[in-house]
Every structure is written in C-alpha cells, then in structure tokens.
C-alpha cells in the first residue's frame, strides 16, 4: 500500500492535465497487457483492450466469460480538474499603459474561487498542433530549471475597495491573465530620442522564444490547448505521512485507484470496465465527456469484436442496462473549522474509508442519480467480505449547495449506479487534501467490486 501511495503521488505530480493523465493511463494499461482496440479484430474471454478518445478520455475492458449482454462491472471516474485555459489568441502585451508586460490571456475552467489563483506559482502545459499535423508538447514550470508564471494581486495597503467586495467579485475572470515576462527597457525609456523600444517588442521576443524552443508561431496558437495549473509536486501534509496535499485530486485520486484496480485484476464471469472521462468539471460536455455517446460507442466496438448471438444493438442496450457501476468520484470531507456547512451525521471524514454517496445533486436532489438500496446492499456485502471500510455521506447540509458527478449520465442507460469515492478537503482549491488510508481503501473497494459476479 505504501507503494500505491507513492505511485499515486507521482501520477498526480507528473500528469496535471487530462491529456497527460490519459497518456500515462495508456502506458499503465499496456504494461498490464491491454491493447488498443483498433489493433484487435476479435475478442474473447480474458482479452484486455482500451479505447482512447481524442487523447483525453479512456475506456478499458477486461472481457469476462459470461455473455456481455448480462452486464458489466464498471468503474467510472474523470481525469479533468479545474484550471485556467489559454484563450484562442492568448499572448498580448500591455499597450495602453506601455508597461512592457506580456500576458497569457485565460478563461477559467470549472468551478474555482478565482482569488485563489492570484500570486501563486503556475505551470503551463498543453499541446500545439501545427497545420501539417505536427504535435508540439508544452511543459514549463515543474522542472527545477524552469521559470513559473503568476497572476498579479493588489497589495493590501491599497486594496481597501477590493476588500469590500464579496469573494466572488474580488477578482474578475478577465483579470486572471498570467505574467509571461517583461524585458528591461530602462535606457530606451529614458532616452526618448534614441529609444529603440516600441510597443509589441516584448511580445515579439516571447514569440521568438517559442519559435526557437518549440518551432511554433503565433498563428499556431489558434490550434493549441494550453492550461495553467499549480506548479509543484504533491507532498505529504503534516506528521506521519497520513495526509496528501496535491493538485487535481478531484478526481484523479479515484481515477488512479480505479485504473490500478482494473489493471491488476482479472475478469471472472462479468466483463470489467473502467471509464476515465473528460469534461466532468464543465458538465461532462463534448465528445470526450460522459454526456455524449462515449460509453455506448465504446461498448459497440467491443460487441462488434465478440462472437455474440442476436441483434447487436439489443446486445449493446442489454449490456449497459444490466451493468453495475461505481461512479468513483470524490466527496467533500468534514471541516471542523466550517462545521456549520455540514450535516455532521451525514458527513464524510478523512481517514474513515471510502465514501458512499447515495445521491448527489442540489436543491431537492436535482441532477442526482439516486442509487437503489438493493444495489447498495450488494456492494456493502462485498465490502464486508473483503474487510473494506466505508462511510455514508452527503456533500453538505441541505440547500447549502451541491454538486454532480458522471453518475446520472450512466444511469440513463438503466444500470445500477452508486457514487463511491475518496473524501477530499479543500476541494477545487489549488491544493487539495486527502487521506492515504482512504486512498488504500478506495483501491481495495474498487478491486473487490470488480470481483462481483
């Protein structure tokens, strides 16, 4: 289990975007015998395949001995996390005030407290795709020799007006632009007659740097996917190596444990499946999110390679409807310093095991997937047999707020779905807190669940 935790910390430290998570997950899968389904013509019991959707979502299958129409055991997590995305025309120089500062223009992604992103070291990750199809990988800020980036803040001495605003208005979304550089121009500024500096020079220097280092120009940025994330590695928090502080633990803590549970396991009668989806933080939208045909298209590819009897469309529908799924997503950990926000008797706590969340949603369970008690009892029984510790919880007090997962998208197929994940403190902050013990229990929970018949 100590190896599991160390490997997990390396995983979230090295893979801070959904693309990097998908790439790393493919490597782990292939090391454990999984093959790209595009290279496979037929499937039989015991085969292991994965489907990579646009490099940002991954679905893995370990084929069981039963007819797939009897259903599958599915683990579903997401690998995207809140961040700052670069806009389509991302680099500009301050022209109005002629400060010479060059900025990266951003649009925030997912639910964040915008003020948390000020005055903190940020790293830049992503890809640039050139018109000839060449892919250029960008990674700046986590290597010890790299620079980092930062969004400026107002010093408290002159922030009287700012401090009167509600937290949601302390910083505007349009002001979440990161400083890329400013080049010295003291001589040029003071010697007006001989000044060589003109507005745009510093931006040109940035573009020359990108051209020299990566071979990209400003037009190439129109087909780029660049993300600002917190710079730095996951670390142990406090004494005793009991807690982990790291970026993106929502929901990579569940994604990693689900992946490892599947990769190291072996399917029995039922086919085992693991979904690592994208775009959950913005409503699971788009081709790589669960609010699409991501899952049923993947199952169709599997069914097409199996020797199945009957109408393939009906087989796909039955396979999905008869499946059982753990929506492996995180829950909010009880915070004693903000206890008024939680129903103490229905809260999850750090260090008490994996969390069952019967329903998510908000305002009267809106947007929730409410798990059937028969299915919960089935999962409980399996965890009891395997000495896995779990707790039952909701996100917060009723009407305090709410949130969703991918569970209700999976439930639309008619399958059993239960939210089951790790408790997280400071969720959606730049650095989130989890318990090493809970991560161990999540891995053991997912492994036991995949053994259900």
Cα separation of the termini: 26 Å
The strand order across the widest sheet is 1-2-3-13-4-14-18-16-17
CATH architecture of the largest domain: 3-Layer(aba) Sandwich
CATH fourth-tier homologous superfamily of the largest domain? Zn peptidases
Count of spatially separate domains: 2
Please bin the fraction of helical residues: 25-40%
| Class based on secondary structure composition and strand pairing | alpha/beta
- Low-confidence runs: none
* CATH topology call of the largest domain: Aminopeptidase
Q: Total strand count, please?
A: 20
Count every helix, treating DSSP H or I runs of 4 or more residues as helices: 11
Radius of gyration: 24 Å
Strand content: 15-25%
Shape: globular
The top-level CATH class of the largest domain is: Alpha Beta
Largest sheet: 9 strands, mixed
Q: Residue-averaged pLDDT, rounded? A: 94
How would you describe this structure to a colleague?
The protein is α/β, with parallel strands linked by helices and 453 residues long. The chain has 2 domains: 2-81 and 247-449, Zn peptidases (Aminopeptidase); 83-230, Aminopeptidase i, Domain 2. Helices cover 26% and strands 23% of the residues. The protein has helices at 2-14, 18-31, 160-163, 186-190, 201-214, 249-264, 294-305, 312-321, 373-385, 407-411, 436-449, and strands at residues 35-36, 48-53, 57-62, 72-78, 83-93, 102-109, 122-129, 135-140, 178-181, 224-230, 235-237, 243-246, 271-277, 324-327, 331-332, 354-357, 390-392, 416-421, 423-424, 432-435. The strands form 4 sheets. A 9-stranded mixed β-sheet has the order 1-2-3-13-4-14-18-16-17, with helices on both faces. The protein has a 6-stranded antiparallel β-sheet with strand order 8-7-10-5-6-9, with helices on one face. It starts with a helix and ends with a helix.
